């Protein structure tokens, strides 16, 4: 009965459930029959009809077997056994079907996963192809850029090669030009040296001519006094070549219109500028017009200064009456004042150079004081007016506008100068300060102060009294000069004689004294001969006798 009932449910479901539905019959947790969804109704109907017919035949046979039996219980048990066997077979078939379905689902899932992986691989392949294409494009671009850079490199290399060739050519031309410049510079220096030597030769010839004419005139007119005019100055009867005369525009061009950057100094008489004239460096002194009595006095002084030729007097090269200016040679090493007090950190002067400067100053003063028929008094002798050349040989400047002194005026007590000397107070003759008479002995007093300055390296104020009061000579000497004591003692003695308050106590600068000073700087300190020393005390006999007198 249960079988029939169950078979009727299957038939009913198979007939009335739509074909697109899937049917599962589960009995006691086991699948006993299934029908898959299908749109083919003919096929399903065929299957259901076959199933129903088989089921009907099964039922009929079962009924026939049951009915044929004699024992109902036996028939019932056999029916139940057959039903259980059928259910077991159906359950086994359902399990197999379910396992097959699971395998199908698993296979479908695997197929779907494989399909998705294929799609992923295909997209990855497409992306890789695209990346490869982009890489190939970038590589092609890089290769093109590299080729372009190589071409540019070759072009730059060619340009560099051309430039190097041009530089080499220019270097050769520059060397050639430098060589030509050096040759031209050498020729120019040679020409300048020749011009300088010619000028020196000219000056030497002029001095020899002046000396010859001077001595000839003395021989001719021995014992007669010459006239006191400019033509008879220094006993010269013939006119020397006239000095160069410059215009104001020439001086303005040489000094950049008297620029402050060209100014060398300024004094009471005027201003001194540095300039370029006559193919050489010159010193241009522009005088104050109020220092002159007039144009005639200026011309006279220029004529006098132009005839003074001495190795230790600054040479006058020309004049400019229009600008009241004098053009002198230029000395590059500044003044004795600068070197003595080491201005601008210059090296100190040695004792030999200082002694030679003393001899050169004495030679120049002897020349000025022994001129005939009129003596020349400097009147402003001081270290600022003593200039040094490149060999540290000195030349006196500012000796003009000079003062001419006749022999008669030296012995006239009533003779006084109308102008005040330009010298600084420490170098001024005390006798002149009292009576107002300027003589060659006034220059000698200033010369004595300068000698003391060269010995001590001290300022002039109060220097004479300090040296007179000292008892130890070495304590006041300038240590940078390294003075030998014999030379220092002789110069101190001579300087103190020059600085006597009375002019009568001052010695004259004679040629003999000048020669002594000229030989003094070449002598060296020698040991005192034994016969001048006391054999017991080993001191000079003069010092030994003085000690005995004191005791």
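Sequence proposed for the structure above (551 residues):
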């Amino acid at each position: 009965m249960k079988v029939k009932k169950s078979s009727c449910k299957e038939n009913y479901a198979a007939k009335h459930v739509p074909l697109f539905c899937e049917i599962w019959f589960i009995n006691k947790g086991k699948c006993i029959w299934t029908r898959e969804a299908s749109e083919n109704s003919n096929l399903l109907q065929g299957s259901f009809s076959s199933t129903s017919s088989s089921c009907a035949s099964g039922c009929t046979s079962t009924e026939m077997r049951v009915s044929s039996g004699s024992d109902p219980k036996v028939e019932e048990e056999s029916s139940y056994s057959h039903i259980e066997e059928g259910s077991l077979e159906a359950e086994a078939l359902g399990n197999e079907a379910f396992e097959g379905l699971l395998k199908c689902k698993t296979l479908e899932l695997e197929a779907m996963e494989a399909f998705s992986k294929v799609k992923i691989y295909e997209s990855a392949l497409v992306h890789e192809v695209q990346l490869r294409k982009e890489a190939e494009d970038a590589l092609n671009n890089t290769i093109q850029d590299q080729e372009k850079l190589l071409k540019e490199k070759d072009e730059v290399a060619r340009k560099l090669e051309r430039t190097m060739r041009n530089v080499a050519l220019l270097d050769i031309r520059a060397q050639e030009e430098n060589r030509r410049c050096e040759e031209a510079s050498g020729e120019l220096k040679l020409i300048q040296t020749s011009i300088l030597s010619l000028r020196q030769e000219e000056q030497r010839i002029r001095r020899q001519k002046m000396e010859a004419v001077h001595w000839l005139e003395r021989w001719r007119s021995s014992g007669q006094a010459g006239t006191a005019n400019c033509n008879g100055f220094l006993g010269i009867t013939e006119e020397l070549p006239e000095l160069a005369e410059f215009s104001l525009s020439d001086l303005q061009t040489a000094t950049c219109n008297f620029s402050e950057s060209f100014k060398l100094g300024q004094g009471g008489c005027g201003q001194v500028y540095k300039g370029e004239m006559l193919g050489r460096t010159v010193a241009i002194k522009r005088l104050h017009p109020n220092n002159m009595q007039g144009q005639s006095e200026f011309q006279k002084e220029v004529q006098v200064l132009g005839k003074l030729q001495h190795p230790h007097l600054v040479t006058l090269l020309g004049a400019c009456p229009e600008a009241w200016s004098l053009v002198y040679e230029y000395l590059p090493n500044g003044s004795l004042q600068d070197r003595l007090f080491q201005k601008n950190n210059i090296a100190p002067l040695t004792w030999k150079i200082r002694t030679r400067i003393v001899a050169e100053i004495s030679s120049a003063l002897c020349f000025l004081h022994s001129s005939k028929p009129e003596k020349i008094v400097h009147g402003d002798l001081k270290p600022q007016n003593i200039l040094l050349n490149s060999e540290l040989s000195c030349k006196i400047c500012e000796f003009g506008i000079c003062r001419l002194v006749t022999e008669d005026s030296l012995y006239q007590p009533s003779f006084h100068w109308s102008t005040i000397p330009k010298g600084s107070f420490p170098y001024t003759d005390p006798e002149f300060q009292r009576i107002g008479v300027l003589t060659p002995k006034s220059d000698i007093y200033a010369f004595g102060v300068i000698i003391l300055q060269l010995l001590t390296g001290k300022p002039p104020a109060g220097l004479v009294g300090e040296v007179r009061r000292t008892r130890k000579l070495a304590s006041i000497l300038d240590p940078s000069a390294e003075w030998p004591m014999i030379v220092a003692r002789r110069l101190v003695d001579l300087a103190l004689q020059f600085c006597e308050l009375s002019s009568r106590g001052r010695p004259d600068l004679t040629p003999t004294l000048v020669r002594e000073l000229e030989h003094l700087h070449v002598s060296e300190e020698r040991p005192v001969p034994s016969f001048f020393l006391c054999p017991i005390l080993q001191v000079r006999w003069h010092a030994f006798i003085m000690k005995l007198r004191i005791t």
